[in-house]
Amino acid sequence: MKAEVRAAVARARAAGHRIAVVPTMGYLHEGHLSLVDRARSRASWIVLSIFVNPIQFGPGEDLTRYPRDLKRDLELAEARGADLVFAPAVSEMYPDGDPAVVVAPERLGDRLCGAFRPGHFRGVLTVVTKLFEIVRPDVAVFGQKDFQQAVLIRRLVRDLDMDVAIEVAPIVRERDGLAMSSRNVYLTREEREQAQALFLALSMARTRFHQGRTRADELLAEMRAALESRPLVRLQYLEIVDPETLQPVAQVSAGAVVAVAAFLGGTRLIDNMVLD
Ligand code: AMP
């Protein structure tokens, strides 16, 4: 399959196409499909990959129960205009088991999600590097939903001189504001209702910032109080950070990002909003 992908991409390139890749873990939703649209605006031949990457999951995380529906994904991807879906088996991506060589972040990978998911971004950067090598795309499209991931991928291509343009597309949300995620199917009805609190808290911070409030501790306290009023929401982190260094800011200026992670029952959700 890797060889077939390489051959198909070579043919597309020979025909004059500009190649985009959209990496996903599947169970596609409108957030993923919006990345295909973005890819279409930057390239003429689109590879969508579907791979639940075992090395980015920690022990006790949801690797084995991660939702999958390849048949439906293939239909959705094709209908949206993907030219090729690459859905390799684990044995194809990691024929020798755990790789002996990986791509790992330095300290940027220890902040936010990285602090709670050790090894996660090492797994992400390794599999994205492999995908880039297999597809050799001109452009790769990621979602702002995974904000820290997008930051690290920009640094990946910059720091390792990879010749791939990185596009980051906005977060696609459900009608009540909840960020779309394959993991939303895990939520019970009550959890799903209370999950809206994440978006509401982020929106409140943005409103306050627009009203001229710039002290991060004040904004965070107000958001925390709103989130704590929802008993099913167990906050993991809530921070306002610099969009490049990911370090917490004391004084908020335009471009800072509010980032949140919370558990609802056993389901971990993340969300973020740029204060602009
Ligand atoms: P995943 O399948 O969750 O690994 O996501 C694959 C890609 O889709 C990543 O670049 C995500 O950031 C992006 N993505 C996931 N959910 C959304 C969303 N709600 N809006 C925009 N992009 C998203």
What can you tell me about this protein's structure?
With 276 residues, the chain is α/β, with parallel strands linked by helices. It has 2 domains: 2-169, 3-Layer(aba) Sandwich (Rossmann fold), CATH 3.40.50.620; 182-274, Pantoate-beta-alanine ligase, C-terminal domain (Pantoate--beta-alanine Ligase, Chain: A,domain 2, 2-Layer Sandwich), CATH 3.30.1300. Helices cover 39% and strands 18% of the residues. The protein is built from 9 helices and 8 strands. The strands form 2 sheets. The chain has a 5-stranded parallel β-sheet, sandwiched between helices. The chain has a 3-stranded antiparallel β-sheet with strand order 6-7-8, with helices on one face. The longest helix has 22 residues, at 189-210. It is globular, with a radius of gyration of 19 Å. 38% of the residues are buried. The structure holds adenosine monophosphate (AMP). Adenosine monophosphate (AMP) binds at residues 24-25, 31-32, 34-35, 142-143, 145-146, 169, 171-172, 179-182.
